[in-house]
Structure formats: structure tokens, C-alpha cells
Write a structure and sequence with these properties.
The complex is a heterodimer of chains A (113) and B (112). In chain A, 0% of the residues lie in helices and 47% in strands. Chain A contains no helices and 10 strands. In chain A, strands 2, 4, 5, 8, 9 and 10 form a 6-stranded mixed sheet that branches. Chain A has a 4-stranded antiparallel sheet with strand order 1-3-7-6, with no helix packed on it. Chain A is globular, with a radius of gyration of 13 Å. With 112 residues, chain B is mainly β. Chain B is built from no helices and 9 strands. In chain B, strands 1-9-8-3-4 form a 5-stranded mixed sheet, with no helix packed on it. The termini of chain B are far apart. The chains are: A mainly beta (113), B mainly beta (112). Chains A and B meet through strand 4, strand 5 and strand 9 of A and strand 4 of B.
Chain lengths: 113, 112
Amino acid sequence: GAGVSQSPSNKVTEKGKDVELRCDPISGHTALYWYRQRLGQGLEFLIYFQGNSAPDKSGLPSDRFSAERTGESVSTLTIQRTQQEDSAVYLCASSLDRIQPQHFGDGTRLSIL
Amino acid sequence: DAKTTQPNSMESNEEEPVHLPCNHSTISGTDYIHWYRQLPSQGPEYVIHGLTSNVNNRMASLAIAEDRKSSTLILHRATLRDAAVYYCILRDVWDLRNQFYFGTGTSLTVIP
């Protein structure tokens, strides 16, 4: 079946612009996760959704970052007024519930000029 | 917060077993031990997880120390496709924030 789909796969934008990253989880997966991975580094947890609610948003790096999820489907991660330090691969994962293993997409590579 | 400690890199010869260690001395009774791996330019892939008992699946085995302060991921016969970064993660299923800490993992090189 279809895996986790992320779009766009690559995004290049100028500093100061807003960007929106999309994640389509596996159908039926109630839990959804966003991570950031800078070049040569491990994954940095950003936020977790159970259904369309996020119990804890403290992992988001700054108030320029926000995330939403519609029901138990698509999620968007929005970065406002992008900075060069936002350049990274943004990964999305979903799982059947908060207990089951996560399935990852291949990420969106964001480059801020 | 770094809850696990792994070597930065390891090497193995092809078709030989590989033992990837992970230390988690502050593990709590409700922490599960998860392993994921990440191939170049891909998202991470689930490998295996366990709580107290050793676990086996088609990909690997997980050996958990009796005191649970360390664990070892075992690849029985390394192939070139196993070259990846391996992450050992603790996950408290009662933590409603459900945060995952991947750390920097172990980069495994498989030598033909």
C-alpha cells in the first residue's frame, strides 16, 4: 500500500519567505510526527499529533513554526519568515497509534538562500 | 535530551554478524527500546523494538541486558544494503507528549 508521502520533495526559497510543507500519512494512522534533520546530524523531534490535536508543541524551534492536522489525515508544517538556519530535511512519520512503530516519508529538503 | 549512547561508527565485513551496542543507563520501567535505521537520502526505517525480553524478527535480533541498562542490535549476516545509520531510541508509552529522541546514531559501514 501507499506509504507516507511528503511534498514538495525539494524546496528552495529566499530568506524571509513563508513555506508550507505537506505530509500525507498512511491511511488509518492516527498518530503523526514531524522531525527536522540538519545535514550530518540526527533527527530533531518537532511535534506529534494524535488525531488532529497536538498534546505538546514545545518541540517547535520558535514561534515562526506552526503545524496543523486535518482530522486523521494530511498535516502541514508552516515556517514563517524563513531563516538560513531553517535549512534542513523535514521528515514526517505516521503510526497506527501512539504505540506502534513509525513509518517515515522521504522528507522535504528545504534550502533557504 | 540524550537518553541513549551509541558509538559514532562501526565497520563490518559482508556476511559476518554485526553487534550494534546502545547504553541507556537511565531507562525507566515503562521505556521501550526501539531501533530504526536510515539509509542515505531516505527517511528512517523501523527495525525492531522490545521491553525486557530478547526479540527476533526477519530483519534483526534485539538482545536486552537483564538490568535493561544496555541493549544490542544484532544483524546476523551483514549485507551491503545494511550500510546505514542505526538509531537506538527509548520510548515511554505513558508519555503523552510522545517525544522521540533519535540522537546521532551509529554509522555502519559494510566492507565487501
